[in-house]
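ingest -> validate -> predict -> emit
validate: passed (alphabet ok, no gaps, 196 aa)
predict: started
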Amino acid sequence: MVSLKFAAFATLAAFAVAAPTTAVSSAGTEEIKPFSFSQWVDDILNPNVIALTPEQAVDAYYQSVNATDAAAAPEAGSLNKRAATCRTISRALIADAVSMINQMAARGQATHTFSIQATLIDVRDGLGVQRASIGATGGGGARSYTVPWESYARAGGFVMDACTYGTTTGGQAQVPGDFGAGYGVQITLSGIYDGF
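emit:
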């Protein structure tokens, strides 16, 4: 009897741990919360959670936009609680941004070192033309910056939460943490698309 109870408990615990926190509810009576790219990144980084795939994350974002009263698009240069500054030109397609952030989050705590400025990751078309990129810029006089990839991914989630509307996203945000003699690092998510 004890082993049967343990098996039932283990099965229920597995479902509780494996449920992604960024999933969008399909039940008509439950409140549907806006999808959070920041929470999706946290899910990827949490070994106890099975996170949505990039494709599922994009679908969940569009489901939440369609199911909730979407707020008006933020003004260019506006700030939200995470201090992301949105762009109105040189924006990336949502799917491209999600793909790049997913790749950065998959690298976890592995670090990346750069001097002053660097392109971290990009998406190119079949001809090799860059469609979207995420770059980093050091915020002061440090000669080099060593940043965990997961920190870049979190900042990318901040940008997407603040600056995603229509079919594109883009902006800048401070990477959480201190990565070089007290100086911060900022990421820029951009692309080749203008407008919303």
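DSSP finds five helices and nine strands in the chain.
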